[in-house]
Amino acid sequence: MTDFPKTPEIIPSLFAADPLHYCEALKAVERFGCRRIHLDIMDGHFVPNISFGASVVAAVAKECPQLFREVHLMVQNPQQHFEAFIKKSGAQRLFIHIELAPEVLEETVRCLQSKAVDWGFAVNPETPLETLQVYKGWISNTQHLLLMSVHPGFCGQTFIEETYERIKELRECFPHLKLCIDGGIRTLEAQRLHELGVESVVMGSAFFKKVSV
Ligand code: DX5
Ligand code: ZN
Predict the structure, then answer these.
(1) The model scores a pTM over 0.85
(2) Domains in the chain, start-ordered, CATH in brackets?
(3) Cα 116 to middle of ligand 1, angstroms
């Protein structure tokens, strides 16, 4: 990773690559020595955009089996898709949004707890961190948290500066969590996030612009 000095681990988001050239994009991800790939699933309801589905995740697994597949579910009813993502496409970590309707969230978490898959919560920029206290019990049983630094739905947005403060607060409340920051991250933000002790960052547009795919 000589091109990204002193940054957290970079996890490229495939959604930001040219959809007609995913294969080349994956080769670039491997060439840069990345170990994980971020797969954004959008259903056009939970977020105002549609991305790709489980068949793309399965194709990634087939093409690059050694890349760890993290699936970010921006969908209204994640449970409906577990079969496809966990069993058929080989997702290795799932992130579900804490902003789901409370009854859906409860059912989703119960279902995830019964499955042999690693999972964590994703948190939107406008969600007060106090909300996380409500779900403290669940969070203490997870290892990873995906903190959004843009409003989910699109790549290529501007990093929301308040994220830095939120990270500090999160670190205090949940020191056991490994944080991954998602959205609007370029080398500059990645370096600052490294200084804050962030473990990993999702990088979409900036990564694929850099590797020109
Ligand atoms: C936004 C997605 C992000 C996005 C990252 O809804 O969750 O993962 O693809 O892309 P950039 O880095 O371009 O913001
Ligand atoms: Zn994402």
Answers:
(1) yes
(2) 9-210 (3.20.20.70)
(3) 27
